[in-house]
Amino acid sequence: TVKMLQNGGRLLKAGSSVATNVEQRMGMATLKDISIRLKSVKNIQKITKSMKMVAAAKYAKAERDLK
Fold this sequence. Notes:
Elements: E1 3-5, E2 11-13, H1 17-25, H2 31-66
Antiparallel strand pairs: 1-2
C-alpha cells in the first residue's frame, strides 16, 4: 500500500481520514470550503459597493454645500 509520512514521523495510509486531514492542513480546501469562501467574497463585494455609493453621495452633498 501507498503510505504518507507525517511531520511526527508516523506513517499514514493514503486515503485514510487522517491522511485527508494532513492534506487539508497542507492547504487543500474542500469543495464546501471553496463555496463558503465564494459566498463570503460576493457578500464583501456587495458591502464594498454600498460603501462606495454612500461615500459618493456624501461627497456630492459636501460639494453642493460648498457652492
